[in-house]
Write a structure and sequence with these properties.
By secondary structure, this protein is of the alpha/beta class. Among the domains are: 5-97; 373-484, no CATH class; 636-804, Rossmann fold, CATH 3.40.50. 45% of the residues lie in helices and 17% in strands. Strands 1, 2, 3, 4, 5, 6 and 7 form a seven-stranded mixed β-sheet that branches. Helix 13 (350-365) runs parallel beside helix 21 (538-552) and helix 17 crosses helix 18 (459-484). The protein is globular, with a radius of gyration of 33 Å. The two termini are 42 Å apart. The model is unreliable at 504-508, 603-608 and 790-805 (pLDDT under 50). ATP binds at residues 233-240. This is AAA family ATPase. Residues 212-632 form the UvrD-like helicase ATP-binding domain.
Length: 805
Amino acid sequence: MSLTDQAKAAEKQRVQKVTEQIAVKIAELEEQVGLVQSDVVEIRKHYWDEVTMDMSTAEDAVESIASMRQQSEVLSERERTHRQAAKTLSKLRRLVQSPYFGRIDFIERGEREEEAVYLGISSFLDEEVGQYLIYDWRAPISSLYYDFAPGEVQFTTPNGTVEGEMVLKRQFVIRDRHITLMFDTGVTIGDELLKQVLSRSSDVHMKTIVATIQKEQNRIIRNDSAHMLIVQGAAGSGKTSAALQRVAYLLYKHRDKLSSDQMVLFSPNPLFNHYVSTVLPELGEENMQQTTYQAYLEHRLGEMFEVEDSFTQLEFVLTRGSLDDASERTPEMIEAYEARLSGIYYKSSTSFLAVIEAYKKQLEQMGMLFNPIKFRDKEVLSAARLVERFYSYDTATRLPNRLELMKEWIVEQLELFAKLEIEEAWVDEEIELLSSDEYHRAHIKLRKMEEVIDSSFDDYEQERHMLARTVMKEHVKPVRSAVKQLKFVDMIGLYGQLFRKSEGAGAGDRELIAEKPRYWTDICGRTLEELAQARLPYEDATPFLYLLEAVCGFQTNGAVRHVIIDEAQDYSPFQLAYLKRLFPRCRMTALGDLNQAIYSHASAYSEIDPIAALYGPEQTEVIRLFRSYRSTREIVEFTRGIVPGGDAIEPFTRAGSKPRVIQTSDRGSLHSLQAAEITRLLEEGYASIAIITKTASEAELAHQALTPLLRVPLGRVTKHSPTFESGVLVIPSYLAKGVEFDAVLIYDGSHHQYGHENERKLFYTACTRAMHELYIFALGDPCHFITGQPQDTYVLTDSAEDVIS
Ligand SMILES: Nc1ncnc2c1ncn2[C@@H]1O[C@H](COP(=O)(O)OP(=O)(O)OP(=O)(O)O)[C@@H](O)[C@H]1O
């Protein structure tokens, strides 16, 4: 629908008028912020001049404290005003460049006059006439823009539903205060604008999507009823985008009671955290807390163990292919591999969680293990004595409560022990070694005591006693602190007991595990071996933590009100149950794609959906997204054939070239073909190009080989990289999760590399990172995930040189 010249001129004029008004407001605020800032500086400088301090009498002291409090209040009020004004200022500075992106003309039922509603990233009020020149995209009326085409419409407000007619819907692109594109549309959100947005180059940071939110995405963003909202969506369907705009929406809607630090995002890796970190600030909101599950495990268990990370576990699982090389493999190697895999499945399942629950019950009656309490090289309390004491408490008392009682008792015993120990010769030896400062302090203390107590003391005895206590205190401190932290509970032994044959009747042990997984004996052997080395494999970390908390008391986080789990398909059922327990008071949003479940434990998904089971059907809502926006139509038509059920994925109508499969038989030509393609892509203006490898070692190899062949720097992403730059880079498949690139080159998509069924989803994940161009190189036959699909028509093989030319 084209606009009349008159309408265009009117819109241009309006933009000018609105931006001028915003600029005036900015100038006013700048002045105000400057004034408040100098106020704050002045108050800080003369803080004590305004405070009258007099402690001569109790009354004077009370007055002095009141005067200090008053001064602090003045200061914090000015600081608050300053923060608020600075925040508004930064919003307005963004708004002035691009004040709005949409307009809807709405006539409420029963009214005659239509209202023109302009939508932007925040609202702007004409204070003189009391009229909104811009509405925040999150305001109730703004939902009309995302949910309806012109015609009969309705929206919900806190006071009920408002019905009426939308008589006009207009979209704008405004850059640097000028309209660069505007058109009227008869559909919900015009595809044209979306196409334009999606054709842009990828960025090292994710972009906001407020101007083009799709109707089904809007359901995710504005959903405020579900306790657990599950979004199951195809690769590139906007799950992460919708989740981030949802955070902004919830912060706006509940601004009186919800703040950004009460929301936590669990990301797949630190790189992803960096990638999404600018979205909320761009929307004028502060970032929520961002973390990874791995970081949490490290935080809780890092002091006790060397905790394996999920990537190392995955790398191990991906070594299956190399075992197929007949020359290298032995039956023992295959068995060890299969045994660990079986252990991973089992330890990630809810059956194992049930075993731990049962084990906890059993420990209430018997089977607890303790570390003896030692003081220097002497045993204060033996492990057996601790067990005896533990079971002397009422068995109805919960384990953590009994441990609290134990703690007090142990500290008492420790003090009794220290009283006797103080007479030992080693104490005298250590007194000799005390510094002159410590001697001096002891003297002062002694003098003070003599003033109050009878001075006929034996000075020497007293001094020795005082110094001995100093020595003793230093030695008791770490023991007491370890007791307070419950380190006397033998957690490693307790977890290990689940994998040990029963010794003595009824000990809490592996007999609890009724249905033993395959390779059970190997699993037990390996688990105990790792524990003995103070190493905790990734699959053991969550069960260990769960047991630790079941015994010592659950640490819950009641402050967090909303948890967002991105790439939720990569969490084991056990991990999800743990997170639910960790955040008992919060709502959750879980975003996932079963087709991108790259971890072995995720196979549990195919049976029942563990996320949906977490809160039960009454509290759970599921929204599915089928349309994929990231990649061109050709790429989506190709990649959807890789996964079962992929036909349901709908491509967005953005055209590009077909993905190319380039097959070669030697590594040298593989690299030169790749270098030639990269050069061509750069010449075509693509800003971000990723060479995606299966593993980290393959990434290292590719990086070494390609660096000398390229004229541009070649970056390399590892699991330790906190950020990534634009340009050309090599990245292992699992680290590319959630991010996207203009062009993707699969380094070696051969059958040799991706020959196993459990590599299908990893391969799919890697291919779906491409926005505009996708190349699959193969050293030998391409993997069967693509050759068996109808999309084979896109495959160009054999003469690789032909493709390049
Ligand atoms: N409504 C929209 N308007 C503009 N761009 C969109 C929209 N929805 C999605 N996109 C773009 O599509 C790309 C993919 O989005 P996003 O990363 O949120 O998808 P995802 O479902 O989380 O993907 P994956 O699961 O593959 O990581 C991004 O570039 C995003 O900006």
